[in-house]
Amino acid sequence: MPPRQAFGNITEFATEEDLRNLALDLDAMRVQSLLICERVLGPHHKDTLFRLMYRGAAYADDLRYQKCIDLWRRALEIRVEKDSILYSDTCFTAQALVRLFVDLNLKALDLAVNSGAPRYEDEPKFSDVLATFKLLADRIAQSRLLLEIRPVYKRQQESFDRILKCLTHLIYLLVETAKTEEEEELVRQSVTDLVKVNPHSASTGDTLLHLCVSRLNTIKSSYFADDGQFIFPSMSVIKLLLECGAPVNARNESHSTPLHVAANPYNFYSALVELLLEHGAHLDQPNRNRDCPLTLISINPANSICLTNYTSLKCMAASAVIKCKVPYVGQVPATLETFVNYHDPAF
């Protein structure tokens, strides 16, 4: 078996003398047990994967986080290779790894803010975050196509939606851990490639932008206590998505746009709403319940945005056409017809 980075490139002992030299090193012996397990049972065996996750959790309990990350990344790579991202155990592994990344990053931020010290050595590495992001993102398009095959299994839909949430958190981590111009360019290119795929959640049709403006976008894992940590809405992530071409007026299953989600009181943040408006979000685009962002924002006492600056005459005209039921289909150019349709809650 070739040396693996997850095991520190350690190889299995070959002689009795090698074993005796390792006998008093408990950690080295545990690594040897993982090597032997993978060789005998194979990397895809359930016991091999269980041992990787268990040993990684033990490292995390001992505050040896990088060792944990290495093993959990290896487990995730095997899961993706063996099954797919639609498999519940793959989703479970991805959630555990991403949640560890997030917790380590938040600890690093807290330390930097409270003590003024530089971010500590246990913060997640950019290379680990990027590798995990690419591992999941490269399989999103194929997995979304698999969900189109009937019958559709609810468990697979839920796994896909959780992986999509993992990807939004990984984008946040990429933004946080990128330190050089080269790394920032890698982030931009990787996110652009994902945006071009235009993934939507299987259950609600939410896009990446819908997820990133919502406080409900969280990751839960049985390996961690649910302490109510929220990183979304994230201005840096939303700005990056918009710059990478994320459709600002995309609609989900309820015909709500990201601005609808951002305008809800539990998500509302004036700078966030203003950012979406600056990138062309429509204030008067109704959802299936006939709710418009304009109404939601106007009645919010925390609002400080002058909405008149973002209200266009063409939007007002389109809304009037719909309200007065003026026939327009086939009587206006196709591009204009599509624009008017956006203002029709029944479309």
TrEMBL record:
Tagged with keyword Repeat: yes
Record key words, sorted: ANK repeat, Repeat, Ubl conjugation pathway
Pfam families: Ank
InterPro entries for the chain: Ankyrin_rpt, Ankyrin_rpt-contain_sf, TPR-like_helical_dom_sf
Keyword Transcription regulation: no
Pathway: Protein modification; protein ubiquitination
ANK repeats: 254-288
Name of the featured protein: Uncharacterized protein
SUPFAM superfamilies tied to this protein: Ankyrin repeat
Family note: Belongs to the fem-1 family.
UniProt source species: Lygus hesperus (Western plant bug)
